[in-house]
Write a structure and sequence with these properties.
One of its GO terms (biological process) is peptide transport. With 585 residues, this protein is α+β, with helices and mostly antiparallel strands. It contains 14 helices and 22 strands. Helices cover 24% and strands 22% of the residues.
């Protein structure tokens, strides 16, 4: 049996699920790859590696390298990787993507995958597992779907003052029962369609608890918002998943015990699971070595962490590309970088292979350059759309040719001048506190110096990443996104001219039209083709250069079985927590 220590106090840390993150490792050192006992098959069988028979019973403590401020990931302030992980054992997801990008239904809530029953207007039918409840004897039903619609609508008429992480239900016009009570039909507005209809989040918090607490959520938009606040500040007494919260302190720890009303096919064998917050990966590794923590899949990893893990025989670990991807963005409103030819040449001059070899390869020895903005290199939807452009190749001759063709010149000291005679100079922003981020900055400055650009390196505190990006306070910046296999909404979030996340401020009417067409495409295969065409257009606009799918680690005590990392889920290793157990020797 793995032991669980009584949770202590953890420091607060913030990380976001579909938002920006500082990129780059936090130390230099000797690289290491996958292959520890239990994880040796993850490269070839990522969906089933570290599998095994489970013994009955056991207590597990799982560490996370950050904290959470509430229990309601509907809200933008709480839609963080840490909130998503701490709510994983009980949240009513429609399903999860596995490590190969395949969608796996949550059979504890649904009896079968959603079905598209009509295209115009778009209607999706959901079939509930007849045994699914909220863990308190109350079955899941129509009102729960309606509650989620209001919470995620983004409409003041439905939820006054609500701040949903994403208005995923903005296009919903009605939700009704189908032919039988276990069938729910969601109808969207005329003209709306999406190839990702199957993955829409249609459940969240239980409507009956909101009513029991006195919130007239269905008729009063202000009461609906108050109900959402209640679910944020109140430790949940309900569960649709394999575990229920037994005890918790927001931001510090949550202790779970098996949910006796769990309706999923997977039998829970653990007696207790604790998710505990830590202020650093170093602290988690120390606790792992002492046997007071049994595993973690932190949001970042350093070469020094890897070196420590490599000497700890009692810990199994694996290094692989994670859910985050780094990129270098250019501000298209900068007086120089408003020129696409200059932006193209800047990217052509950057040598990503050298950058990766000097940084990310210290963590993951086979770290590879990312060659598509939306699809991973090993994805079935992937097309290499970057190599032919020369962007990221460190090709100085090509970059100079691009500039010469556009009328740029160099003075006697090799400094680059615009066709109008102005010397080209701008800044490069990056989060400080990391040797690797500094190395990246130095390499990029060296590359651009080779084509005559005077680059000012201008670091900022990690805590200032959000304001720096959201205020577009940069000419050139290096940061990262975390995401999931869905790509339609991400493409619009990243690059639509009117998107609040289009920090490079690019305005391209043709790209906007392509994004609109992608959002309206129902056929998944056609959507993939359109998405790759959009990536090609983004490359043509030359204002976002992907670097790498950022390496991450999973680390566990060797007796922990059926635990593996999952880049495709924001919950990471907790995506299949019902299957966790102690290895049956």
């Amino acid at each position: 049996m793995l032991r669980a220590g009584r949770p202590g106090t953890g420091a607060v840390g913030v990380g976001a699920a579909l938002v920006m993150a500082a990129v780059g490792t936090t130390a230099c050192g000797t690289g290491a790859g996958a292959g520890d006992p239990g994880f040796e098959d993850c490269a070839t069988d990522p969906v089933a590696c570290n599998s095994g028979d489970r013994a009955d019973g056991g207590e597990v403590v799982w560490g996370i390298d950050g904290s959470w401020t509430g229990w309601n990931p509907n809200l933008s302030a709480e839609y963080t990787v840490y909130t998503l992980q701490v709510t994983a054992p009980y949240w009513p997801w429609v399903g999860q993507f596995d490590q190969e990008g395949e969608f796996v239904l949550n059979d504890g809530v649904f009896a079968r995958e959603p079905v598209l029953v009509n295209e115009s207007p778009m209607q999706v039918e959901y079939t509930l597992n007849p045994d699914a409840t909220w863990g308190d004897g109350t079955g899941i039903g129509l009102d729960d779907f309606v509650y989620n619609w209001y919470a995620r609508s983004g409409s003041e008429a439905l939820c006054q003052g609500c701040t949903p992480a994403a208005a995923t239900a903005a296009a919903v016009t009605s939700i009704e029962e189908g032919a039988t009570a276990d069938k729910i039909i969601v109808t969207y507005g005329d003209g709306y369609s999406s190839s990702e209809w199957k993955y829409e989040p249609v459940l969240s918090n239980p409507s009956h608890i909101a009513e029991d607490e006195g919130f007239d959520w269905e008729h009063d938009p202000a009461a609906m918002a108050a109900a959402e606040t209640h679910f944020s500040t109140t430790v949940p007494t309900w569960s649709t998943g394999p575990f229920k919260v037994d005890d918790a302190e927001t931001g510090d720890f949550a202790i779970y015990t098996p949910n006796p009303e769990w309706a999923g096919d997977t039998e829970v064998t653990l007696d207790e699971l604790t998710v505990k917050s830590f202020d650093s990966v170093d602290s988690i590794i120390t606790e792992l070595r002492q046997g007071t923590v049994d595993g973690a899949s932190p949001s970042g990893i350093s070469a020094e962490n890897v070196a420590t893990l490599a000497t700890a025989d009692e810990i199994a670990f694996d290094i692989a590309p994670g859910p985050g991807w780094g990129h270098i963005d250019l501000n298209t409103k900068n007086e120089f970088l408003q020129d696409p030819a200059l932006r193209t040449a800047v990217f052509q001059a950057i040598d990503l292979e050298e950058l990766i070899s000097r940084t990310y390869a210290n963590i993951q020895s086979d770290a590879a350059r990312k060659l598509n903005h939306l699809f991973r290199n090993d994805s079935a939807q992937f097309k290499d759309l970057l190599s032919a452009s020369g962007q990221g190749a460190g090709d100085m001759e090509l970059a100079r040719t691009t500039l010469e063709t556009a009328g740029y010149t160099w003075d006697g000291d090799g400094r680059l001048h615009t066709p109008g005679g102005d010397q080209v100079a701008f800044n490069y922003r990056f989060a400080d506190g990391s040797d690797d981020r500094q190395t990246m900055a130095d390499l990029i400055a060296f590359n651009l110096g080779d084509i005559g650009i005077d680059l000012e390196l201008k670091p900022f505190p990690v805590a200032d990443l959000g304001p720096t990006i959201s205020e577009s306070d940069f000419d050139m910046v290096n940061y990262g996104w975390t995401s999931a296999p869905v790509f339609v909404s991400r493409a619009s979030q990243y690059w639509a001219s009117d998107s609040a996340s289009n920090y490079g401020q690019n305005e391209d009417p043709e790209l906007d039209a392509m994004l609109t067409a992608l959002a309206a495409e129902v056929d998944p295969d056609q959507a993939v083709e359109q998405a790759n065409a959009i990536v090609a257009r983004v490359i043509e606009d030359a204002y976002v250069l992907p670097t790498v799918d950022t390496p991450v680690a999973i680390m566990v005590a060797e007796d922990l079985v059926n635990v593996r990392d999952n880049w495709a889920s924001q919950q990471r290793a907790l995506y299949n927590v019902a299957e966790w157990g102690i290895r049956d020797r």
